[in-house]
Amino acid sequence: MRTIGQHRDEIAALVAPVLSGRRFTDPEAQRIVDLATGAGVGRGHRVLGRAVVAPVPLPPFDNSQMDGFAVRAADAGTVLRVALPIPAGVVPSPLEPGTAAPIMTGARIPDGADAVFPVEATEAGAFPAALGLAEVRVPDNLVVGTFVRATGTDLPQGGELAPAGAPVTPALLGALASAGVASVDVVRPLRVLVVSTGSELLGASADAGSSSGDAGSSSGAASAMIGDANGIALSAALAEVGAVTRAVRVPDDEAAFLAALDDAVGEWADLVLTTGGISAGAYEVVRQALEPRGLAVTPVAMQPGGPQASGTVTFAGRPVPVVSFPGNPVSALVSFEVLLRPLLAADAGLPDDRAAQVLPAADAATSPPGKHQVRRGRVEDGRVHFVGGPSSHLLAHYAAATHLVHVPVGTATVEPGDPLTVWRLR
Hints:
The chain is of the alpha+beta class. The protein has helices spanning 4-22, 32-37, 170-178, 229-240, 254-265, 285-290, 329-347, 395-400; strands spanning 28-31, 52-53, 63-64, 68-71, 79-82, 99-103, 115-118, 135-137, 148-149, 160-162, 183-186, 191-197, 244-250, 271-275, 296-299, 302-303, 307-315, 318-325, 356-360, 365-366, 372-380, 383-386, 403-407, 413-414, 419-424.
C-alpha cells in the first residue's frame, strides 16, 4: 500500500509532461480586458506564454506627482507670475521664463519646467482657490526633479514587463494597460476530461455512451438513480486552479465506457480524471477496461480515498495520462485536494492557500492506525471541531466544513487537546 506522498509523486511524474508541454506550444492570444474580467476560456489563474516588453516607457512622459505648480528649480526662492493651468490629459505649452504653471496630478510637465512644488505651499493652500492667484513664491529648498515622475522610471521602453511563465496578476494587467498593450499570449489552460462512472448516475446511458447535458430522469428506475455529484464538484474544483473541463457520464459497461472515452478525449484532453470503477466490485468498469491498457490500480494508505489508480492510456491512437479517484463524492474531493490540486495550483502560479496549521482537537475521534485519515472540520475558538463522521458519502457535511483535518498514520484515537494539522478550505 502506497503512502500519500508516494502516490502524489507518481501523479506528479505522470502529469508533468502535459503541464510543461503547454508552456512551449500553442499559446493563446487573450485581450487583457478579458483576462481582467474573467471572460473567455480558462477564467482567471493564467500565466504568460511569452515574455512581454514595454512598447513605450513607463511613465511615457514626465508628469506631476501632485497638485501644485510646475516651475524651474533655478527659480527657487523667487516670486513668479502664475501662468495658465495644466490639467491632466493635455500637451502643455512650454513654460515661459518667470512663470509658474498650476499643474494637476498626472498632468504632463511642460517643456522648460523641471520641478513641482505642492499647492499647499501657497497662501491659497488648495485648488481651485489657488487658480485665482496672480503670483506665487517658489520654496527655497526646491531642487530639480522634486515631485516629478520622470519618463521611464518605472520601466524603460523595450524593458521586460514580465517574463514567460509569469502569473497574470492585477498589477501586471494594470502595467500592460498603462503601456497600451491590448492583448498578450498566455499559456492555454489545462484541458481535463472529467469522467463519472456508474449506471446509477442520471444521464449515464448505455445507448448514448456518455452525457454532458442536464441530468434527466430514468424511466422505470428513478428510485435507484442519483445525480452526478462528482462531475459537478470536480469540474468546479478544477476551475479554481485554472483548468477547463468537459464532463461525461458513462455506465458500468466496458464497451460503452471505451467508446465514450475514445470519442470525448479526441485531440482535446490533456488529462483524463475518472471517478468510480476502481474498487473490488463486480462492475468496476475503469479497472476492467483500462488496467489491461496500462492503468495501475494501487491502494493508498488514506481514508477516505484508499482505492487509487493512474497511468498512461491510449485513446483514439493518442497516449493520455489518466488519474482515477474513487466514486464516493467525499473520497473524490479529498483525493483531489490531497493528490492533484497541489500540482495544478503550482502550475497555475497560485499561492499555497492550503497552508498547514496545527491546532488542538475539540472532540474525540477514532482513526484506522494504518491509514492517514482526512476528516472534515471547522475551526472555532482556536480548536478543531469535526463535522460529521469519516464516511465517504457525507457530502453535505463536507460542504458545511471549512477545513480538512489530518489524522496521521499510526494514530488510533484522538483526544480533546491533541494537536491536529488542518488545511483551510475556505
